[in-house]
Sequence to fold (263 residues):
Amino acid sequence: VVADQYQGQFPTQFNDVHALPGIGRSTAGAILTFSGLGAYPILDGNVKRVFSRLLDIDQPVTKPSVEAQLWDFSQQLVDAAADPYSLNQGLMELGATLCIQSKPQCLLCPVQSHCQAFRNGTPHRRPVKVAKAPIPHKTIAVGVIWNDQGQVLVQRRPPEGLLGGLWEFPGGKQEPGEALEDTVRREIHEELDIHVQVNDLITTVNHAYTHFKITLHAYHCQYLSGTPTPMAADAWQWIDLPQLPKLSFPTANKKVLAYLIRP
Ligand code: SF4
Fold:
């Protein structure tokens, strides 16, 4: 961008620097201040931590109103600084060397006498963290359904939605209080309208998706009766075991498959 739009000369106006790809407000302020092109506030992650302690802020720094307060504070400091370069450099260094996340070195800190958190005994509790929502966990039970010819029944998920178009062993989510074998029987009946006998557990695998985790229990099942009629899948087939790896499966099902075809 600098080569194309600024004839190879790095811009010197704040708005132009800020508009460059990958350069946020704090980086733009640091570049210009350290280049002697003005006095701009900075607020990178380290500086946020320093300010949250200097002001002893008891709310998460990710909160927009708190972030605005921190920018105001940074602006006030830079406006009052005789040497904005040294101020911003000092703030960044302080956050990187002494006012660190764990074990802040308050006894060595040159701004200790200005620090409200130090006065209140709260540096370890600042900045306040937002409690992360727990990642949902689902318990899944599936059946590897065998027919009398030694083939396995698999179904294909519809093209749209999570894991769309991938093949899988039929099954689903365990209901509260339900035995895993009953989950397999119920889900297979609901999904394919067939009856199976649930036999031994093959394996249990864990897998993490972006927004949830699963524990998947896979059982050997014997096909008993009914014509497979998929309710949620868009295809199904009986397939010989050696052919299974040729199909595309989701990761958790692949882990089950590895148990089935291991030497
Ligand atoms: S006194 Fe401690 S908490 Fe306060 S700015 Fe210095 S190192 Fe950080």
The two ends are 56 Å apart (CA to CA). The chain has a mean pLDDT of 95. The first strand starts at residue 137 and ends at 146.
